[in-house]
Amino acid sequence: MADARRAPLKDQTDITGARVLIVEARFYDDIQDALLEGALAELKSAGASHDVITVPGALEIPAAIAIAIDAAETNGKPYDAAIALGCVVRGDTIHFEIVSQESSRGLMDLALSRKFPLGNGILTVNTEAQAWARARASELNKGGDAARAAIAMLRIKRRLAKA
Ligand SMILES: Nc1c(NC[C@H](O)[C@H](O)[C@H](O)CO)[nH]c(=O)[nH]c1=O
Ligand SMILES: CC(=O)[C@@H](O)COP(=O)(O)O
Predict the structure, then answer these.
(1) What is the residue range of 139's domain?
(2) Number of structural domains, the chain?
(3) Atom 6, ligand 1: residue with shortest CA distance
(4) Is residue 49 one of the residues assigned to a domain?
(5) Is residue 1 part of a domain?
(6) Does residue 11 lie in a domain region?
(7) Handedness of CA 148, 123, 113, 37 (dihedral sign)
């Protein structure tokens, strides 16, 4: 597997108190627990609060994020960033391509159209073994990767807003 270590980003713009939405697809419960553990550890070290919404599968994640963002804005408690977590494992049909590509496209559309800091932690793998290699709670955890990406984008957004 390609080296999963990431060069630490230099931007340390304060995001203490940021509200982060996590939308998780609990298709593989135990793998999801590991991804969520990795993401929560990153949010804790960044001083951000979080809410978790659970959906049936990865295909539902983008819509759930859009619904939750709008509801939070209406309630006067907007989210500052979002993290998508899930695991899509290839089966016997082309459904894998649909679920993995459409969930990813939906997240990208959201991030671009709303200029919204978002991390994609949806694993798209051929086997559960590949998923576990990317979900175990360590520096390889893709849940932690997605949280770091969302945090990095939020720091950029806040820094540029002050510029
Ligand atoms: N096969 C996987 C799915 N499939 C379900 C879809 O995400 C969706 O919930 C369904 O098509 C109804 O709209 N979801 C995963 O998250 N992981 C999979 O491996
Ligand atoms: C990613 C999926 O939807 C997949 O797990 C479904 O399996 P299959 O393609 O055999 O129906």
Answers:
(1) 19-162
(2) 1
(3) 57
(4) yes
(5) no
(6) no
(7) negative
Ligand 2 lined by 99 (C-beta under 6 Å): yes
Q: Which residue's CA is the closest to the ligand 1 atom numbered 11?
A: 59
The CATH code of the domain that includes 98 is: 3.40.50.960
Please check whether residue 27 lies inside any domain of the structure: yes
What is the pLDDT tens value at each position of the chain, 163 positions in all? 555 556 667 888 889 889 999 999 999 999 999 999 999 999 999 999 999 999 999 999 999 999 999 999 999 999 999 999 999 999 999 999 999 999 999 999 999 999 999 999 999 999 999 999 999 866 679 999 999 999 999 999 999 998 7
Q: What is the torsion angle, in degrees rounded to the nearest 10, for the CA atoms of residue 106, residue 24, residue 35 and residue 90?
A: -60
- Ligand 1 centre to CA of 96 (Å) is 8
State how far the Cα of 96 lies from the Cα of 114, in Å rounded to an integer: 27
Ligand 2 pocket test target in 27, 28, 90 with most atoms within 8 Å of CB: 90
Q: In degrees, to the nearest 5, what angle opens at C-alpha 141 toward C-alphas 137 and 143?
A: 105
How far is the centre of ligand 1, averaged over its atoms, from the C-alpha of 147 (Å)? 22
How far apart are alpha carbons 65 and 90 in whole angstroms? 24
